[in-house]
Amino acid sequence: MQANAADGTLRASTLEAAMHRLLAPLAALLAACATPPAPEMVAAPAERPAAAVVGKADQASATAAGPWGGADPARWTPEAVLANAAEEALADPAVVVVAFPVRLSASDVAPFGDGQTNAVVDLPGWSVPRPPVVAALRHDGAVTLRLDHALGPIAGLSLQVEDGAPLHLALAPDAAGHASATWQPPAGWRPATDRLILRPDGWNDAFPLSFRHPVRDADVLADSVPAPLRPAALPDPAGVSGRPGSAADALAAQGAGPGYNHAPYVTPTVHAGLPGRVTAVGGARSWVTEAPFKHVYLCLDGRDAAAEAATGAPSGAGWHAIGDPAESLVNSLEAVPLLAAWGQAHLFADDEHGFAFGAGAAAYGLTDVATFRHLQPGEALVTGRDSDYGPPVFHWYAAAAAPACVEIWVHPCGLDADETFACRPAAVQLQVRGAHTVAGEAIFLVGDHPALGAWDAAQAVPLDPAGYPTWLAELRLPPGETLHFKPIRRDAAGRVTWSGGADHTWTVPYAARAFHGVDWVD
């Protein structure tokens, strides 16, 4: 298939001939997908007893039921196309993370009544049952890049890291006829944060790429939970994995314990319901508590080969956008790796368009990136925005061959800089109501916290009179911090009048955003 050098779109006139050329590589892909890879296992942390990772799925391969979406690639949904390509790449034990340029779209479908909404992943304008670009980050730090042969003849590409100088890589055909290269990143390259731009030779358009996939040790994540939010034990506060049999059996027989629903919530699919679109098949059971934070035991029902073949979609969870401050998928209950993905929309913001794509655009409209990894026992995938107003983030996870359970931790506050459960400062709005002034006067807040002037009236925080006589201030304050403060009125000469009554006391809640209002007292 030929690629238009100006916009990277497929020429429909060559589609039929190109599909004939795809049959041989496709057969090889199916053979690879049908052979279960040997998952790389990691040892459980020393402080976690071996009995904490047991279950029916101990020796089950995630791909024992064949390719995701059934044996017919023509039926594969984009979710299955990506899952199969990820499994194929991760079958190489040297590969850590696999990345694909994609298009991710959120919806307003929120089946579980929280901030998470169902989403879809797409490869618009692309009809081949493989992604156009497959990038694999290896244990030794090298990166392998594969551009699908359906893109047309491509001899090389320009690779740029963030705002660094472009590097030219020569491409050579691999065994399947795809254009491939290996890149040895320079010292100082940060795969968790640095973004890449790939531009095939002769193209105006480019592919965005990133290897960010925020996985943390589950015990490290647990240790980062603020003490007031921490249950008696984490991970697995109900001790489900220590009961006889599998976690699924224990939950079905006994429930998760006090605070959780004893009978499970049964759902036919997980984040898969969208009008006119099947994104996942297979049901789940869940046990939920909201205290001290939303904690979920989720048991996926396993691979449903018949439903996959009928729909072309994989078993497990559909992609979903994270609307709460963060959500972690914690693989702490079973000794089976789970194929999990993390995604970010708009890898390059609108004001970075020229820097990223020059005179072109994102090839095939693929503005976003999805990264895949096998989430090992004892690990957690942490999904949250970098800021309260950052681009949407998404995640996805597949079902193991047999029923398997995981934990879901829904964070009430924004992630810290290390992407753990520790809270970054909350966006707080403080209001003073009924504060009347005359010309030259303004209202301020002063208190014991340094952000409130440390009781120094000269360093007090000025309030905005936009809602006069209600005045407000926007501050960043650490959740859990108890503040003592008071409004003051200051005139043009610097004279200060304090609001009457006692000092106000308020504790910043564990949340990404918070509001607190007080009344002016004459």
Task: Give the topology.
Layout: H1 15-34, H2 78-90, E1 95-106, E2 117-122, E3 133-138, E4 143-147, E5 156-161, E6 167-170, E7 172-173, E8 179-183, E9 196-200, E10 207-209, E11 215-217, H3 218-223, H4 247-254, E12 265-267, E13 273-274, E14 277-278, E15 284-289, E16 294-300, H5 305-311, E17 320-321, E18 326-331, E19 338-344, H6 353-357, E20 368-375, E21 379-384, E22 393-397, E23 404-411, E24 426-433, E25 442-447, E26 461-462, E27 464-467, E28 470-477, E29 482-490, E30 496-498, E31 504-507, E32 513-519
Parallel strand pairs: 24-32
Antiparallel strand pairs: 1-2, 1-3, 1-20, 2-17, 3-4, 4-8, 5-6, 5-9, 7-8, 9-10, 11-21, 12-15, 13-14, 15-16, 16-23, 17-22, 18-21, 18-23, 19-20, 19-22, 24-28, 25-26, 25-29, 27-28, 29-30, 29-31
Name the shape in a single word.
globular
Strand content: 25-35%
Alpha plus pi helix count = 6
How many domains, as an integer? Answer: 2
Biggest pleated-sheet summary: 7 strands, antiparallel
Q: Tell me the Rg in angstroms.
A: 26 Å
Total strands: 32
Low-confidence stretches: 1-63
